[in-house]
Amino acid sequence: GINDLKRQVPVAEILKNYQKIIDYLQYNYPDSRILVQSIFPTQLPTEILTFSIPNSLIKQLNQNLAQQVNDQGSIYLDFYQRFTNTQGNLRSELTTDGLHLSLEGYKVWQFALKQTESRLSKNRDHNYQKWLQESAGFPLDGQSYSWVSYQVKPGDTLEKITLKALGQEDFDYCDLIAIRNNLISDIRPIDDQIEIPQLIQK
User: Which end of the chain is more exposed for a tag (fewer CB within 10 A), N or C?
Assistant: First the structure.
């Protein structure tokens, strides 16, 4: 991964190592789902870390890795864009030194992994996510819901908003709102406008 790029290991060799690891896991754990995530961007060099790992190289590796993982029948997790700023570099608030994640960075990563776990367990694939983003409403637990605009208030988190809207704070429910609004974090800016479910009264 990123340490290989720092040591200037060729991309082809890195991919071959990934292939060997996936082959090993598939052979020894045939009933398991194998997930491989993208390599994060960097913001290098910095005053702390003076070396450079070009994000263009990371993107190239990620693109090749995604294809290889899919060809091997495993699941590729593309988290790269969650961590980039408008210049395509690792967002400053998500890193301590341009390479390693800060506490806020780990929260974004944790949220991404929770979303992945929820979507895999609920079979909420890309087609379902696209449908939910475009739908006027959706069924849930025998009830029908429509989408309404909501202005985020001080102290609101995704869990609290979901509890207000659906009476549940389990992450599987939270992620319905996250999918609809393309959220990549539990915390929303105050006064942010999002859409939340509203029960359709019969």
Answer: C
pTM of the model: 0.87
| φ/ψ of residue 36, rounded to 5 | -125, 125
Superfamily of domain 2-121 in CATH is SGNH hydrolase (3.40.50.1110)
Residue type, 115: Q
Q: What is the CATH number of domain 126-199?
A: 3.10.350
Q: Element (H or E) spanning 35, and its range?
A: strand 35-37
